[in-house]
Amino acid sequence: MHVFLTGMVIRLGMVLALVVASVLAISVVPEPVREAIRAQPDWLEFVELLVLSDLCFYVAHRLCHAVPALWRFHAVHHSSEHLDWLATFRVHPIDQIFNSTLIALPALVLGFSPLPLLIYALIYRVHSPMLHSNVRISLGALGWLVTTPRFHHWHHADQIEAHDHNFGGQLTIFDRLFGTHYVPGERSLPVRYGTGGAIAQRYLSHLLQPFGLKSESNSTEPVELVSQPVLPSPISPGESRPSP
User: Fold this and answer.
1) How far apart are CA 122 and CA 27, in angstroms?
2) What interhelical angle do 7-28 and 93-110 show, nearest 10?
3) Residue 23, C-beta contacts closer than 8 angstroms, at least 6 positions apart
4) Which pLDDT does position 215 carry in this prediction?
5) Which of 69, 72, 148, 191 makes an SS bond possible with 210, Cβ 3.0 to 4.6 Å?
6) What is the longest distance spanned by two Cα atoms in the chain?
7) How far apart are CA 139 and CA 148, in angstroms?
């Protein structure tokens, strides 16, 4: 449902958001600046685009965790209790449109060439499902710079020591720079994922619950919204978590 229905809503919303952002960008950045950027070698444009876009990703992601109004929508993505590649697509449209628009700002404002944009888009599409996959992929020394599934799994951990860490999308440099990097041990993975049941496990609930609403199919369940930009505290081994 998220892959097809939510994805369609996100694509429509992104088209509108990017059209508006493109019009505004043209009036902000002088054309000579945009031409100078496009005159660079493609490889240099790609590196610049990757770093700037990931900085925007980091900022947008931290805002979604720090601002309660944004967290209510972003919590849908964190509600997956078993992390795998499909968790990539469990997102609220408002959350994804907000994040994707901010990530696209460097490309829109600075006017990068088509080839670096295409390469970045393809890498992003492959890398994002990989980060959520339940696989162990080691990039060796490159893992110091590039995010891995284990890096992102700790971002999704329902464990207090991992809260508010690992915000980077493709790169780890901003987490290292701003002190939010957290990957314990060599091969350790989180014990728990999710939001402790704060988000109901039904599709319509994912769409409506951030607004304080509930679906008809979920009418017998109480609506318990996450009001703080942090995940619930961990439970002790053997202790059961109460139902929402």
Assistant:
1) 28
2) 30
3) none
4) 58
5) 72
6) 64
7) 7
CA atoms within 13 A on the CB side of 180: 19
Amino acid identity, position 33: V
Structure-derived torsion over alpha carbons of residues 128, 86, 61, 207, reported in degrees to the nearest 10: 150
User: For residues 48-68, b (16+ Cβ closer than 10 Å) or e, as one string?
Assistant: bbbebbbbbbbebbbbbbeee
Return the structure tokens found at 85.
């590649």
Q: What is the DSSP string of the chain?
A: -IIIIIHHHHHHHHHHHHHHHHHHHHHHS-HHHHHHHHTS-HHHHHHHHHHHHHHHHHHHHHHHHHSHHHHHHHHHHHT-SS-SGGGGG---HHHHHHHHHHHHHHHHHHT--HHHHHHHHHHHHHHHHHHHSSS----GGGGGTB--HHHHHHHTB-SGGGTT----SSBSHHHHHHT-----SSS---S-BSSTT-S-SSHHHHHHGGGT---GGGTTS------SSSPPPP--TTPPPPP-
pLDDT in tens, 8-31: 999 898 888 888 877 777 777 788
**Could you tell me the two tokens for 1?**
């449902």
Q: What is the pLDDT of residues 132-167, one digit of tens each?
A: 998 888 888 888 999 999 999 999 999 998 899 999
What is the distance between the alpha carbons of residues 62 and 112, in angstroms, rounded to a whole number? Answer: 25
